[in-house]
Amino acid sequence: MNVDIHDSWKPYLQPEFEKSYFKGLAEFVKLEYRTHKCFPKGSQIFNAFNHCSFDDVKVVIIGQDPYHGVDQANGLCFSVNDGIAHPPSLINIFKEIEQDLEIPYPTSGNLIPWADQGVLLLNATLTVRAHQAGSHQNKGWELFTDAVIQLINQQKQNIVFLLWGGFAKKKKKLINTAQHFILETGHPSPLSANRGYWFGNKHFSKTNSLLAQVGVYSIDWELK
């Protein structure tokens, strides 16, 4: 696996790349991509970092693992490539933004414009085998992405962490709530949203209010 990651992250993450677990993970990923159809494509595995430099991080959204359907995943949690039908969780994210900020539902589900503004869209597992959800879990990715969360926690101030659903909320233990902001709600999946645990959370307007409090430019959530 070629670790194609933005230069701004390298001084902080190089020690992680040299640990034995990561070397084993890299070998596993290389073999999987050689012998099976996997997503996202190899050049996009570290897209979350390449579109959101370390210096630019303002907001962190934590997902679980990539979409496993053909051409869906592009390396950013909840995001899909242009021209791909929006998965159910993403539909509910866009519906909440529509209600919260009164901006139109977008055509594309590609969230790169958010990442380019400083939203780190971080899946806990960065790769997956086609049509096999969770197939690359517990191979080392979680150790790496937990280290990323801890790095941001230690090195930065006033980051807004959006923890959606039980899995993401478990990451709260890695975050110092005295120096960062945490907004928690249910997962945007239909199972959770239809039970009343997602809609009305107003996380998008709340995020911008928190950023404004600390003198940081807000996020334009509208995907034009």
Task: List the defining traits of the structure above.
single chain; 224 residues; alpha/beta; Uracil-DNA Glycosylase, subunit E; two-stranded antiparallel sheet; 11% strand; Uracil-DNA_glycosylase-like_sf; DNA repair
CATH architecture assignment: 3-Layer(aba) Sandwich
The topology string of helices and strands comes to: HHEHEHHEEHEHEHH
SS summary, helix count: 9
The tally of domains stands at: 1
Helicity range of the residues? Answer: 25-40%
Instruction: Report the uncertain regions.
Output: none
Report the span from N to C terminus: 34 Å
Molecular shape: globular
Counted beta strands: 6
**Helix/strand class:** alpha/beta
Mean pLDDT, all residues:
96
Topology of this protein?
Elements lengths: L9 H8 L2 H16 L2 E2 L7 H4 L8 E5 L24 H14 L10 H4 L3 E5 L4 E2 L11 H15 L4 E5 H5 L11 E5 L4 H4 L9 H11 L11
Parallel strand pairs: 2-3, 2-5, 5-6
Antiparallel strand pairs: 1-4
